[in-house]
Amino acid sequence: MTATAARAYRPALRPGVLLSPPLLRGPRTVHLVKHPGTGAAFEVGIKEHFLMSRLDGTRNLDDLAPVYAERFGRRLGEEHWNRLLGLLGTRGLLVGAPDPAAPAPADQRPNSLWRGTRPMVADADATTARLHRLLRPLLHPAVQLPLLVAVLVLIGALVWRAGSLLDGTAELVRQPFALMGVALFLWASITLHELAHGVAAQHYGGHVAEIGLRWRFPAALLYCTVDNYLFLPGRRAKLVIAGAGAYLNMLLLLPFGVWWLLLPADAPERSPLAGLLVLGTIQALSNLVPLPPLDGYRMLGHALGADHLAPETRAYLALRRRGAEALAGYSARARRIYTAYALGSTAVVLLAATATITFVLHLLG
């Protein structure tokens, strides 16, 4: 393309190209870009995203240069413009550009008795879409807000009666058949936890790529992969999708909580129910701890608009030991986020270890 033709060219992004909201990655703020056909994804900077979001086939370099200068305080040069067009054309992101080759699938370890994964649904997106259509009336705020209040009340009641619940859990440990029933319920709860992520993704326009079974001997659990929720606009949708599993786990405990609270003190069912409530609540709320790979870690990243929070924090701390000059590329906001996460995650690990030891000692005692 000649310089004159490139200047007059009015490019348009291919329909279906996904652009993510801004994400903090180390010292940089980036946007993710995903090809609608091949699924190939890569990241671009703020300036490139600013231009890409305006490529609708009606603007050329002369149209975009003034708004670019107003936003960034510098002129949009032809070299930058041509480089961007070359990148987008090569990756097949412009209307009329040929599709690039699909990315090679990542190497995966072969399945064995000890560990592996196996897809179990031919079309995971269609399956969760059917579930969503079935459950959609229950997802209305008029239904969900009272349920959310009920879950919060249940958590408060469980904290208030923690002593009785822990005593009942200690008795459950000495009842092997009842303990097996509780373990089976918790396993089923984890399975429904994963499906809740998929249904929530469908509700907000996400795409469910895969539903399958993952095993690490002797445990086997269902998994549900949502592959484009990072591209959903706004933070609320991403927070709801990430937290849907833990929320469903607490909803499943509601009837058992009411049952336990209404039983007389000498009822034989109180111990199994107490153990179910304690272990189920631990299972649900521990998923909200902001440590990888838990759902709470993803929720914190969405709330902060930060990606790869844990590895980027480790990289930041390693650079910090070299001195202030090594951190010159980090904004004040990035420094606050990574420092706070380093301190907070350390405190969470210590608190979780203390709570686990106390809980185990109480059961043994």
Give the structure's gist in a few sentences.
The protein has 365 residues and is of the alpha+beta class. It contains 13 helices and 7 strands.
Textual characterization of the structure:
The chain is of the alpha+beta class and 365 residues long. It contains 13 helices and 7 strands. The chain has helices at residues 3-8, 46-52, 61-72, 78-90, 124-135, 141-160, 162-173, 176-203, 236-262, 270-286, 295-304, 309-320, 332-364, and strands at 18-19, 23-25, 28-34, 41-45, 115-119, 208-216, 219-226. The strands form 2 sheets. Strands 1, 2, 3 and 4 form a 4-stranded antiparallel sheet that branches. Strands 5-6-7 form a 3-stranded antiparallel sheet. A hairpin with a 2-residue loop joins strand 6 and strand 7. Helix 9 (236-262) packs antiparallel against helix 10 (270-286), helix 9 (236-262) crosses helix 11 (295-304) and helix 12 packs across helix 13. The longest helix is centred in the last third of the chain and has 33 residues, at 332-364. The radius of gyration is 25 Å and the shape is elongated.
**Low-confidence spans: pLDDT under 50, at least 5 residues?**
none
Through-space gap between termini:
79 Å
Largest sheet: 4 strands, antiparallel
Structural class: alpha+beta
Portion in beta strands? 5-15%
Got a strand count?
7
Gyration radius, rounded: 25 Å
Overall average pLDDT: 90
Features:
365 residues, alpha+beta, four-stranded antiparallel beta sheet, three-stranded antiparallel beta sheet
